[in-house]
Amino acid sequence: MIFDDITDAIGHTPLVRLRVPAAEGVEVYAKLELQNLFGMKDRVAANIILEAKRVGALADGAHIVESSSGTMALGVALVGTSLGHPVHIVTDPRVDRMTLAKLRALGCEVHVVEAMTSHGWQSARIERLEQLMADLPGAFWPQQYGNPDNPGAYRRLAREVLDDLGAFDVLVGSVGSGGSLCGTSRALRESLPDLHVIGVDCVGSALFDQPDEPRRLQSGLGNSLLPKNLDRTLLDEVHWLNDHEAFAATRALAVEQRIFAGNTSGSVYRVLTDVARRAGRGTKVVGIFPDRGDRYADTVYSDGFWASSGLTDLAVADVPEQVDYGTEVTRWSRAVNKSGLDLDRHLVFVEANTTGTGMIALDLAAGLGLRPVLLTGQPERYAGLAATGAEVLVCDTNSPSALRAAVQDRFRREELAGVVSTSDFYAPAVADLAAWLGLPRNPVDAVRTCRDKSLLRRRLAGAGVPQPRFAVLEEPVTPEAVAAAVAEVGLPCVVKPVDDSGSNLVRLCHDTGQVAAQADRVLAVRENVRGMPTARSVLVEQYARGPEFSVELFGLAGRTELVGVTRKSVTGGPHFVEHRHLFPAPLNPADADALADVARRAVEAAGMALGATHTEVVLTDDGPAVVEVNPRLAGGMIPELIRLATGVELLEQQLRAAVGLPPDLAPSDSGCAGIAFLLAPAPGVLRAVDGVADAEALPGVTAVTVTARIGATVRPPVNAYDRLGHVIARGATPEEVDAVLTAALDRIDTRIEPEAGQ
């Protein structure tokens, strides 16, 4: 295998079968992470540093500062220096001479603290690191204990094991920063949900509710502090070994398996032997061996060190004692893990929509026993936010690095249940953040494809999904490009941005002059309503004639289930603004099946797999044609119509999917529901909305809501943001609902005065 760069050689480590006493058919394997260039933390350093550069948290040539006494220091040195960064390592007197020599040979500046502080060597190192950060403006701290890119690095390790071995039953790994075992097991459980995970800790470590003993001799596992990356809820079982047992197991590993390793690998090996002894026929067990033994020549492998340190005074056990979780241990013991069961779990919202479902979603999160948290750049945008009781974190939600920093600073990983948004614009940010954290999610590529209509059009074309003819105009738009697009698509055609929402800047054009003018209008907009830079591309597509529908689907565990089809009514051209929805759409079975089939094909072609999607389809004379696939719940209060008609709280099911809970899509009711939007008949200033009470009093009306501010300048709708409010009604039949909505609108009078000077 040939690599172009030294960092490309990280990973690709062997999986080796161990020969240990076990029942016939039991297989035990070691993933030899010690075969990395310097050790397992090479993976972590590479992932953290490369991701920091990608999202802009690490500038070219900036200093990198990390606290470590072992393989993380070497990994940061390897990757950081190879990418041209000055590297500073803060360590303590326990650092071995081999590691120190390697760090200095790689060109690092090594800072050795002289004494423990309040939380042992860990806190002493952190205090020195913080001083370095203050002295080196722009320096980057990988923060292996709190950076989710640490556990994220082990998705690749998990894939390597699955590729080499396939399904297996038990994973054993050491626990220090929380990265390797949590990251690997979290990724593996996406394919192996019943995987049994065993954590290996040391006596004197505080990670699993044991008394802290900072002077313990083992390195590479255990901790005096609770790292943010540690997600104890992933572990089924915990083992503790004292220093004598760990060091003896490491020597046994060399003698019995010919693997010269460090004490973390030795401890994992000892636990593997116990798991193998207890395992039933056919069980496959994998252990992660992090580091090799050269760093331990003067400790684990030194008889003189054993004699001088009093190791042999510690009692040893041949098999672990089964204890209740929380029992103080002094030698090899094991317990069913019970930590993390009483934690507050948070559901993080990245912004929300402003039409009502955003605040409803925050309330629903609390109803699921979760603590809602809203990440937002503008809390004042959301009416009723205070009443939800949600925690609000203000940050730049348009910046991936700022979003990550806000989450990393505020939460330990085991406190996070999911990430979600009810805003179209933030679906890619949610997918990216959830992937970073290893939370339930759709593929980032799938969400980005749906959000960019030009990418979606190409994806659907490749999959043979029926859709309007299309062409894409890029800046600068020339007369020749416009003419070519019109020739490809035909007239009349629809011109729109590739990445906007709410029918914004969508226009029906009848000649090339109108197409060119509308393309210029689209390209003139450099930021959308949320302050995000626009894609600077224009979609020109065939005008698909026919009634419009949206198909609501829900994906989970490889299935895409139909929730229902909504009939949509839109204003006439040149603008297309939805003004009435009816659920379920009155359709004959053949048309209903055709709409559902084409929507399912589109969603699967896009790659969406989890939760709700909202696919807009036109039923043309030639059959259904897909207009959009939205990677989110429907807007326009359609989830509320579904609730009224079927009893299915689709918004709640979306939240459940976001935190890994099974949704309940079974209807408990049968009826129809609809919404009609209030529209301004003429431009001017809104002075009053009369007749609301009369409309509310009509049988079947469930809500009348005015969203426009009295005194605001209004206009006949050009996009969805121009709607003034809505009426929602429920009934037994589509005809009944339509009649109630029309009657309600007849009772409402929007008083609009011309603006001064008109």
Describe it.
α15 (444-451) crosses α16 (453-463). The protein has an 8-stranded mixed beta sheet with strand order 1-2-9-6-7-8-11-10, sandwiched between helices. Helix content is 33%, strand content 22%. It is of the alpha/beta class. It contains 23 helices and 30 strands.
Ends: how far apart? Answer: 75 Å
pLDDT < 50 runs, ≥5 residues: none
Q: Approximately how much helix is present in the residues?
A: 25-40%
Output mean pLDDT.
Answer: 95
The gyration radius over C-alpha positions equals 30 Å
Q: What structural category arises from helix and sheet content?
A: alpha/beta
Described by the principal axes of the CA atoms, the overall outline is elongated
* Main sheet: strand order: 1-2-9-6-7-8-11-10
How is the main sheet built? 8 strands, mixed
Give the percentage of residues in beta strands. 15-25%
Count of β-strands: 30
Count of alpha/pi helices: 23
Topology:
Elements: E1 15-18, E2 27-32, H1 41-55, E3 64-67, H2 71-82, E4 87-91, H3 97-105, E5 109-112, H4 120-135, H5 149-152, H6 155-165, E6 170-174, H7 179-188, E7 196-202, E8 237-241, H8 243-257, H9 263-278, E9 284-289, H10 303-309, E10 321-322, E11 333-336, E12 346-350, H11 357-367, E13 371-376, H12 385-388, E14 391-394, H13 400-410, E15 416-420, H14 427-437, H15 444-451, H16 453-463, E16 470-474, H17 479-489, E17 493-497, E18 507-509, H18 512-524, E19 537-542, E20 548-556, E21 559-570, E22 578-583, H19 589-606, E23 611-620, E24 623-630, H20 638-646, H21 650-658, E25 672-678, E26 684-690, H22 692-696, E27 701-706, E28 713-714, E29 725-731, H23 734-747, E30 749-753
Parallel strand pairs: 2-9, 3-4, 4-5, 6-7, 6-9, 7-8, 10-11, 12-13, 12-15, 13-14
Antiparallel strand pairs: 1-2, 8-11, 16-19, 17-18, 17-19, 20-21, 20-23, 21-22, 22-25, 23-24, 25-29, 26-28, 26-30, 27-29
Helix pairs in contact: 1-2, 6-7, 8-9, 14-15, 15-16, 16-19
